[in-house]
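for ur thesis appendix - Beta-glucosidase. copy paste whatever u need, i formatted it the way the template wanted (i think)
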Amino acid sequence: MAFQENFLWGSASAAYQIEGAANLDGKGDSIWDVYSRVPGNTFKDTTGEVAIDFYHKYEEDIELMREMGLKAYRFSVAWTRIMPDGRTVNPKGVEFYHNVINKLIECGITPILTIYHWDLPQALQDEYQGWESRKILADFTQYCEVLFNEYGDKVPYWVCMNEQNIFTSLGYVQKIHPPKVSDYQRFINANHIASLANASAVKRFKEMGIKGQIGASFAYSPTYSKTAAPEDVIAAENAQEIQDLLWMDVYAKGAYPKIGLKLLERLGIHIDFQDGDKELLKAGICDFMGLNYYQSATFVAPENREQTAQTGNAAQVSVVSDVARIPTDDYYVRADNEHLKMTDWNWAIDPEGLRVALRRITSRYNLPILISENGLGAYDTLTEDGRVHDDYRIAFLKAHVEAINDAIEDGCEVIGYCTWSYQDLFSWLNGYAKRYGFVYVDRDEESEKELKRYKKDSFYWYQRVIETNGENLD
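the 3d part is after this line
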């Protein structure tokens, strides 16, 4: 296998999805704390108030990571635990993450810190509508400075924004994340400000001389054309411009793609460039590209929309959007790919798509890549003897590890592989029904039970993968 000796075999999580302790030790409300309390906003009205209680169980969980032999753990810091109102530092919150980082280092696990994983302080949303105001640039940069000062000598890898394309589009287009609106121009406005905030954080990181590397994690589903018909090929190209390059070009080149901007302009959508914006984006180029990969995406031209994407059983086990049409439907329509099987949630299973993604990023940007998320969301069954036989997850991950190996042999530089997720956790749209972890957490939407941890079969599989540096995938 092609994995280098120091390859980061890791796993990942997000603060709101695991920590719980929503209002303990000075933590303030995030937009997700408030949003999830509104009946109907989440699947079976589930929240992260307790989640899997990592706040109190972090030592137990990290000891399990040590047992597995995990080389890296990507976790996010809750802005409202560090700064409850978005501005005022909470010493107990700062101390908590010192404790987590110190425990990881004690166990020989490299900490990868995600600065923002969707939990904006509600106070800033109330004051100036959060990402829709340029006032957030100063507040976000100040928050980053606190983290850099506190943890900069301990953390070698930093992820600034997690899936900026997802939290902006689901919040401002699909209406299934806060602030739960559908307005494409507002989406583009908020996203531009988030891009400026990301660049400001990267710029400040470098100005402060932090020794680590910083990047952003982008949710990338490489685009395919459903057919060889030229109009379908152009549709897939248009989808790549608007759904991918509008972010990745900014992270890696410090500028928006020309064709993507032109396509938006034709729809009457404009980016609000102000003095200094382009210079700031250029000053905020990332050190690596973080890649969150779950599936590829297949498209047809609007006039060939006879076979659109499956919905299957997703509506029964998930919050789904009721937005019927968005402006970009004039350019491309999502379609099924008959060559691919689907997960329980009707996501296309496409290991070769990961190889495609790695190659495209390498060819266009020539940056190192950290695979910051990849995993299978599925139904898991806990047996009476406390086992979870998740051979389907092992098969999924094995195929993707093989694809990474092939991409490395193709010439891609891959820093590490963080599966999503280490433990089962709260899902933004699926409560506790959709499980991703190596460690089963015994709770559901109705009851927290005892939050007991159980090692799945995949736990032992990944343990062997790590022990052999990817040589043993059986």
